Amino acid sequence: xxxxxxxxxxxxxxxxxxxxxxxxxxxxxxxxxxxxxxxxxxxxxxxxxxxxxxxxxxxxxxxxxxxxxxxxxxxxxxxxxxxxxxxxxxxxxxxxxxxxxxxxxxxxxxxxxxxxxxxxxxxxxxxxxxxxxxxxxxxxxxxxxxxxxxxxxxxxxxxxxxxxxxxxxxxxxxxxxxxxxxxxxxxxxxxxxxxxxxxxxxxxxxxxxxxxxxxxxxxxxxxxxxxxxxxxxxxxxxxxxxxxxxxxxxxxxxxxx
Length: 257
Fold this sequence. Notes:
Layout lengths: L2 H16 L3 H21 L5 H25 L4 H5 L2 H5 L6 H33 L6 H25 L4 H22 L2 H5 L1 H13 L9 H6 L5 H28 L4
């Protein structure tokens, strides 16, 4: 797999996504976020910086995950349906280079989105008297890893199902991935052995997105153990590697004739 060919595909993908004016929408969302935060703080007393941080991180997560879900679903399937992939892989560009290039292009868009909204969130928080906590940067980084896992998941689903089903299944897995930990702590699950075993098995198969959710910790705590942060980071990297391997395997087996 040639790195130069990966970069060529990534550059093409990046330019194509820019034509959709997605970053302009992100900038408008960011400005709207700052205005909304200011209005909200006018009706709240005591903790305006906490509201700014909560709003900002929530919008950052929603925006980044939406890009993964709705742009990721057509990242490969759109190229296959429009037969663009036939011209690319006959140049010759290997299927692996094509996949990595497409992913890298969309990940670049996600990174810019993250930088724009993350900067506006930090600026709003600082202007309202908040302190710059290193946990904020961990949260922003974990949001990127979460969006990457969702992107890989929806791309994987798009190779075996149509776009609507891919979005629905990926969205359901995202919700389950955030709620499985709290669900396991309920008395009903603890008293239902078979259900507890099913949820326990979930951790070994399906993505545990809750591991990357630091927003509540930032708002109500000032720090987290480094062991927790590094273990969550390692989990996201390993699971993403697993998903990339599945994507490459399925795409290599896919009949493009």
